[in-house]
Amino acid sequence: MKFKFFLLFLLLLKYAGLDAQTVQQVEVAPGVIKLNFGVADKFNPYNFCDQKPAVAAMKALPKGKLPFDIKDILISITDRGAVVEVPLKDDEQLYGFGLQVGSFNQRGLRKKPIVNDNPLNDLGYTHAPIPFYVSNKGYGILINTSRYTTFYCGSTNKLNNGAKALSESNGGNSVEELYKNKANANGSVTADIPGAKGVEVYVFEGPELLQVLQRYNLFSGGGALPAMWGLGVKYRVKADFTQQQVGKMAAYFRDNHMPCDVLGLEPKWQTTAYSCSYVWNPKYFPSPSQFIDTMKQRGFHINLWEHAFVNPASPLYEPLKTKAGNYLVWNGLVPDFADSSASNLFANYHKQTFVEKGISGFKMDECDNSNLAYGSATWSFPEHSSFPSGIDGEQMHQMFGVLYQKAVYNIYKQMNIRTLLDVRASNAFASSYPAALYSDTYDHDEYIRMVTNSGFSGLIWSPEVRESASIKDLMRRSQTAVLSAQTLYNSWYLTNPPWLQINVEKNNKNELLANDKQIEADVRTLLNLRMSLVPYLYNAFADYHFKGIPPFRALIVDYPNDKNVYNISNEYMIGQGLLAAPLTDKADERKVYLPEGVWYDFNTGQKYTGGKEYSITCNYTGLPLFVKEGTILPLAEPVEYITPSSKFEITCRVYGKTASTTLFEDDGVTFNYEKSTYNTVALNYINNKGMAKRSGNYKLKRYNIKGWQVIQ
Amino acid sequence: MKFKFFLLFLLLLKYAGLDAQTVQQVEVAPGVIKLNFGVADKFNPYNFCDQKPAVAAMKALPKGKLPFDIKDILISITDRGAVVEVPLKDDEQLYGFGLQVGSFNQRGLRKKPIVNDNPLNDLGYTHAPIPFYVSNKGYGILINTSRYTTFYCGSTNKLNNGAKALSESNGGNSVEELYKNKANANGSVTADIPGAKGVEVYVFEGPELLQVLQRYNLFSGGGALPAMWGLGVKYRVKADFTQQQVGKMAAYFRDNHMPCDVLGLEPKWQTTAYSCSYVWNPKYFPSPSQFIDTMKQRGFHINLWEHAFVNPASPLYEPLKTKAGNYLVWNGLVPDFADSSASNLFANYHKQTFVEKGISGFKMDECDNSNLAYGSATWSFPEHSSFPSGIDGEQMHQMFGVLYQKAVYNIYKQMNIRTLLDVRASNAFASSYPAALYSDTYDHDEYIRMVTNSGFSGLIWSPEVRESASIKDLMRRSQTAVLSAQTLYNSWYLTNPPWLQINVEKNNKNELLANDKQIEADVRTLLNLRMSLVPYLYNAFADYHFKGIPPFRALIVDYPNDKNVYNISNEYMIGQGLLAAPLTDKADERKVYLPEGVWYDFNTGQKYTGGKEYSITCNYTGLPLFVKEGTILPLAEPVEYITPSSKFEITCRVYGKTASTTLFEDDGVTFNYEKSTYNTVALNYINNKGMAKRSGNYKLKRYNIKGWQVIQ
């Protein structure tokens, strides 16, 4: 009798969904389904996300449809960890895994997104290791884990899985023949998560790829809307510049009418940097407050380099000593950012010492890990580190950059001040943080590919310009910088701007280029083009925030069914209607594929029929940019820097017979837009007539439409 | 009352050593202490080792002494896995971790020895990922695990560990300045073994570094003694050669008196190779038995290329189908070699089909894993694979090469036939397997470094010669090949031997070098030098087997306290008295450090005082070799190939006034030496007189000492 009741009890448990072997499934936001199996880790990326999903905007998206039954996602837990198998169709193309460096279309590859500053070999290592991939068939899969996870993207074949037999091969006579990629008909993406006792999988629906990304960004709170000045030019000065020398550099920019919004200070502003004291070094900056104020008066924002490893000489050391990992980095504490009390201590100190004194942003360095940076293995903490919160070193590595961002961003958020930060590591659900990733790697082709990859994971990527091998290299890199989320010249080891001398050694000896003024003028032209594009870019970022549309994205996002774009990683969309196709120093011509429709060369107005590849060129002072028919490109007269009262005199370039766009208008520096204090300026061109219509609650009219220029 | 008894019970448990928190410690062989904590993994390297420790030889070694208290080795188990911390003194130098490619002295580095065919970036990836390091202070530590393990070799600093404070730094103005290695005073090597619920640590005592290695090799059953013909020259023919073409190549060797003992066949001898059928392809080899016999008559041994992934077309497929992993590789089964019944099936088929027909060895390819070999991610099985035996994919990856070796070696062992195999992966406790590692990487400097590293872990490494960039490159690589454990020319994609045409394309068009006969003669000179060295090398291998002395080893092994050799990875000892210092195509001169004592140039007899560095050169037909004073170098008249009846006419080169050595004499092809069927020929030169004294049970006198040549 008793035994019968027990069986009944088990049966009841099973039907009540309490059976541990059942995958739990719940729609956590419109088109976002969370699967849960086993005991998921506490320190997962979503648990660290404070942002509420932008439910209303998600609801407004067309309903998604998965190309498979969600029940066919298999999750298993073994002694080794968790394994997730997601169905994959033969013709699907896969993208994502964060800021990938070496690859774009991930179909057929094995990827291990691990945080790393030196992502060689295309293992999947990256500054932003996001366990999230998307399919051109209109869905995305995110494994909500901060454990090191390997994704086999249709690159394995199971025994007895009924997959098609491979054609047999009896080898070859050359390495190429022997090792040629044997295409594989495997029907799944498999994620291997060693150590996990359970796992959460987030499924993002489309119906199209673009909507998948919109849902992801909106679920993460909406994309970041940087301070408007963040879209201007950032220049980082030499590490050993004194307050006076920075002042001189500031004067150089204004005297020579080189646009610049932000000056970044490098390590030596602190008394000790490896590890950090977070204390102004009086030798270099005897009067920091006065310095910040003077700079502000001249229209410069000041950004401070730092990292999060706390030196014994820092006022933060004692308070953080009990809230840190059990290993030191450069003799500095590793704050336990997984514990909000540690983050708050760190943030409050920064708030009082820097932000309240007028510091506009930080460059958060060294928060990634390293393989073997420059022969040293003492970079960062070991993976077996333990922290008071209970997070281990492996998980902390993956999350460190995003937790650091969160700590610093919250200072600004609480003060109702916007910013644009720099950071060297990030992770999932971080779309809302206005922090641009940067890298010490410097391959221009990779930097371009990273723009296209950034859009798959809610990231802002800054392909910075440092030294150059040639004038051509400098100009091509500058074009890419102008056509990216953040235009940054990082001169931390250069006395003079790189356009006055590309060579490091000569630059630091003040041996300037013979034609320095000509190069300076050419760079000025490019920077002015950047400033002309600011209203357009600002609107693209507003779309990122309110609609989740990545401002910079691969062509596949807009054209998911065009086979010709499956593997294009050196062209990308900017906002609604611009297509960038940067050149490098390798050649003065390049192939550009233009998708269906009609396109116009930004520089010449030349018209192209889409669906074809063209060979194009672009001189140094133009932009390798194409405009889609139906676009209004609002080009502003360039300003040298942006303040809340900056006005933009705009000429609307109309491409085609009927075109439209919008402009987003607000103060550019507060979060008041969250309380609807902003305007939308609708621009329409119909029947040979341009019309601007402003709506909204913001008082100031910052955009003046002074003319229309039609290109047909 | 009951509670008291319970406490008493706990107390008893504790003193009975059953407390799970106590590290168990037991001396498992003379000078080898095993520590055990928690529940160690079943599939660990030592569990797979069949060989009994050579206890008598170990007992004969001087007693070791650890530079720390063994109780100071700390082991902890957390949710994440196991962590082992081993004391480390400031002045210790560390070596090992298997066939490391990018680094030599591991002090200060982070190393993750993971099996891999493409070990870039110096992460620690290697063909032979051995979790074993040794210290110049006279001990070795082996973590007996097949899990992916990370070693922090004094590269981390703990919070509150009382380590010396680092000098603070406030950054620099250049990458070099900023990132220079900040030396670290940490007092431990830490091994991180994620996933482990327990761990075994083997501590190998010295007293000196050499004895540590001796103990390791003897504990593994003694080093491998290859078939004597294995010390001759191996040549691998082009993959698409037919039986007839191989015959022609054989004739070339004999007609031109180029020494050659082994011809290796590449993939196309099988009906299907990726994956393997293990069935002769009648198109290329219509009569294999006849072919093998003919070759044998001409003094050639035949070696067959294969790998272990079993094609559906193979007779092995059906029997192995239930004894294989759940993922396929190139549509082939992955045999569960951790299950002896699978190994036996595989071995028995090979025995009957090949070995009993006269096949002398195999080249066991593809048993390593790959990052992303040639753009394909379908290389090998995923880490989350499961196998019927219970081993998982990660552990199987680490052990696959060694289990494959074991399966194939046992065929020969059972048949009382010796061999020398080729293999692309190995692991710990494999010293007794006569299998030479090889690699697709081809950097000559790395190949030389791998000779020095091989000796720290009981490995045989074969720096093979393929194509060359220049004649100089060919000759320098040939010299290194001659001065290595196996002299191998791998021409799997070359129609003609590389010395007739170094360029691949021209070679395959039969466009030979203008001076091909001259180059051939130069290579012949080198190969003849190899054949002259065979008795010396054979004796070095006998010392490897009976005494555990690595035949090829870094200078630090013989001179552990000479600071000048701490980082020398481009010189190595061969046998008792030879020091090799190979040159590459980069320069015709190089620096050679000669340790204390007196040394002689092998080619010129020039005398050098040790303890100093010299600039030396070596022409193409000499050997970059130095002989230690007190050495007798027994040089044989070169034979073209070696049979059990080969006799060696030996001239003893005596270096110095008093010198000695031994020669090991047996049939060279059976294991009868294990039953003492061998001779030792003691060679002594004292008071201006040379004496040879033979002792032992072997009947045939293979060495004839025909003269003494004194160099002083």
From TrEMBL, chains A, B:
Q: Which UniProt keywords apply?
A: Glycosidase, Hydrolase, Signal
Determine if Ribonucleoprotein is one of this entry's keywords.
no
Name it.
DUF5110 domain-containing protein
**One Pfam family, short name please?**
Glyco_hydro_31_2nd
Question: Which residues does the UniProt record annotate as the domain DUF5110?
Answer: 649-705
Q: Which InterPro entries match?
A: DUF5110 (IPR033403), Gal_mutarotase_sf_dom (IPR011013), GH (IPR017853), Glyco_hydro_31_C (IPR048395), Glyco_hydro_31_N_dom (IPR025887), Glyco_hydro_31_TIM (IPR000322), Glyco_hydro_b (IPR013780), Glycosyl_Hydrolase_31 (IPR051816)
Location of the Glycoside hydrolase family 31 N-terminal domain: 86-151
Where in the sequence is the signal peptide annotated? 1-20
Q: What is the protein's species of origin?
A: Mucilaginibacter limnophilus
Xref: Gene3D superfamilies: Glycosidases (3.20.20.80), glycosyl hydrolase (family 31) (2.60.40.1760), Golgi alpha-mannosidase II (2.60.40.1180)
Q: Name one GO biological process term.
A: carbohydrate metabolic process
Q: Which residues form a coiled coil?
A: none
Domain Glycosyl hydrolase family 31 C-terminal: start-end pairs: 548-633
- Give the Gene Ontology MF terms in alphabetical order: carbohydrate binding; hydrolase activity, hydrolyzing O-glycosyl compounds
Q: Specify the domain of life of the species encoding this protein.
A: Bacteria
Protein family according to the UniProt entry = Belongs to the glycosyl hydrolase 31 family.
Family annotation (CDD domains):
GH31_N, GH31_NET37
Record PANTHER family: HYDROLASE, PUTATIVE (AFU_ORTHOLOGUE AFUA_1G03140)-RELATED, MALTASE-GLUCOAMYLASE
Q: Where is the Glycoside hydrolase family 31 TIM barrel domain?
A: 224-539
